[in-house]
Amino acid sequence: MAKHDTPLLDELEKGPWPSFVSDMKRQAETKPECWDILGQLELSYKDKITHWKHGGIVGVFGYGGGIVGRYSDVPEQFPGVEHFHTVRVNQPSSKYYTTKNLRQLMDLWEKHGSGMTNMHGSTGDIILLGTRTENLELFFWDLTHEMGQDLGGSGSNLRTPACCLGQSRCEWACYDTQEICHKLTLHYQDEIHRPAFPYKFKFKFSGCPNDCVAAIARSDFAVIGTWKDDIQIDQEAVKAYMNGEYPSNGGAHRDGDWGPFDITKEVINLCPTNCMSMEGDELKIDNAECTRCMHCINVMPRALRPGKEKGATICMGAKAPILDGAQFATMVIPFIEVSADNDFENVIDVIETVWDWWMEVGKNRERVGETMQRVGLPTFLSVMNVKHMPQHIKEPRSNPYVFWKDEEVPGGFERDIVEFRKRHAA
Amino acid sequence: MGYDPNNPMEGRISDLGPPYYGDFLPPVIKENKGKWLYHEILEPGITVHVSETGAECYTVRCGTARLMSIEHIREICDIADAHCDGYLRFTTRNNVEFMVDSKDKVQALVDDLKSRGNKFPIGGTGACVTNIVHTQGWVHCHTPATDASGPVKAVMDELFEYFGSMKLPAQVRIALACCLNMCGAVHASDIALLGVHRKPPMIDHDRITGVCELPLAVAACPLGAVKPAKAKNSKGEDVKSVKVNNDRCMFCGNCYTMCPAMPLADPEGDGMAILVGGKVSNSKSAPKFSKMVIPFLPNNPPRWPEVVDAVKNILEVYAKNANKYERVGEWAERIGWEKFFELCDIPFTDKCVDDYRLAYDTWRTTTQFKYTSATASYTG
Prior knowledge:
The structure holds two protein chains of two kinds. By secondary structure, chain A is of the alpha+beta class. Chain A has helices spanning about 5-10, 20-30, 35-45, 100-110, 135-145, 175-185, 190-195, 215-220, 235-240, 265, 295-300, 345-360, 370-375, 375-385, 415-425, and strands at about 65-70, 85-90, 95-100, 115-120, 125-130, 160-165, 205, 220-225, 230-235, 275-280, 280-285, 305, 310-315, 330-335. In chain A, helix 2 (about 20-30) packs antiparallel against helix 3 (about 35-45) and helix 4 runs antiparallel to helix 5 (about 135-145). Chain B is built from twelve helices and twelve strands. Strand 4 (about 115-120) of chain A pairs antiparallel with strand 4 of chain B.
């Protein structure tokens, strides 16, 4: 594969941010197909349009996901990218790696692929970018036999679950996001590799309401850490913040010219429920009014911590806009304990309840959030065996069109018009 | 023994799942998991976590291009081997993190990172513009309306000082998705860059019968703009095909996803929209969707100057006007969107008024609004 002139892409070698163009050129020295990636991309920069064909169903035996087929529409010009299939490799929880593991994976990709990757894909997988059909089984053999690793999901299946870094390095995580992510990924290998759903289904596990993996925006099944007792307060540390001994917001505003820390302005007045106040030099929280938003804890991490009785809120049905518009996940289960002690059995029960229903009533290419909208939240909550409560809504309905059921109305719906007419002339 | 193409199921292993994360945790992380007391960002990109055991973990965060080579990953491994006992991690926003267990080890790590040209910019913490999450674009995708890695590089070059500092009112999350499928899920970002199409699909009557299930192509359109129709192929033969009611097309591209014979990408038609004010976190206000403020900017490779200027302008007007802790969307809601458009000097057009489903929820049904230049012809 010949080197191509890339005058447009060369402009992206300038500037202070890391340049993927420089990186790819370096890789091309040992993996010449990278010249063809650059060449085809340069052509797209010139033509202002993609040069990848639509589709191409490829994979490894026994799996219906994990590989995304891709072919060039200008293969004569760029034979190195004639086939350019993506391989999704399931990442470890929270994306920690040993260099030994990464180097081994890179050696495999040098042997079987283009030498380019994404660290990581939007759903969380390690993305190995670009290989030929005939290399797929060889790569998969080495991945499973030499590394004991596996592919992630693609298509209408359970997509590769993802989690925040959780308790591994965060004081706010209300449950072990890494462990449940790992265990459920193992538990649902069949659902990840063999598409049997109406459409994709994503799990994301965030340890607290800051939601660092965007579970509420991006997952069909969002498990977001929370607590049910009182925020833990260290009054001495509160005073230290007020005296300017500790930086506010964990030092996140260090470079701004914001003046001295003002607990009234920055914490008490910004509390969305106004449940905080000062009594003398003590900070008081009316925990019954608290909605656990995290702001005060974010601002004073050395003084405030989530409560001790921790668990998670489960929200369901988030998705990007295609087609009816974007949806955030809807709060379904206000509090659930999340514990490895019971192998997450209670969470699994919730998952399987929604799957059993969605696999039956979901239409082709309908995300569960769309199915929820189609049937309505009252019906969905009944399906989930969850009692309806005001916490499920922002406000009660403002239209009067209630779907009363036959059994809810005394005497039912069946009436006799003849009897009616005896009393009411037409 | 190895893979035998004549006997593909022989010796096959499957359904292994991910490697066990516990084997990949640096010792200081493993020993203190669940015991962390607090954290503090010491300077941009450098954070200490302190455990109840007294242990400390110092993390140095660096931006990456996300699209990276195996050589680059090997270089990351070299750094982690030299300073971090062979451990590292990546963040959900495509940063790489190097962790050490003592303050004494930080400077050598930082010096090493800084000695490697522009490959490992340190930052991405606190009230900053952290790394942009993005999609594949022209590098690998078949449906994009723009590139991803190129515009991201151009934007981050321009906003570089905000990556390596913490002087903004709050964190600003920027995301790019190269078409309306939004693999990048930019619908909840402070500033979202979104590839958009503006021309209806063409219909390839020569191929449609072979490559498409016509009922699926028809059903793919959320507005019923695709209907079954008879057509003539290039040989003049009658074929079963579809027709598109162009007036009803909203350019979502879902028909092309379902039917490869309905391409809609176009050099002049395609470009980028900018949406702002989304957030994911539940902190203070509930999660918010990003809202469209600029419906279209042209694709102008290699550096997308119109897009870069628009992002920088919005960011800097926000930086100048928002209160401490206020996210872009919280600021826009406090001052009112009419003021947002005026302050950012962004022309308001009909394209920013919703006329899709649930549009009414976004219409103003109160007499409360602020006068801006937009109302001048009524008040002048």
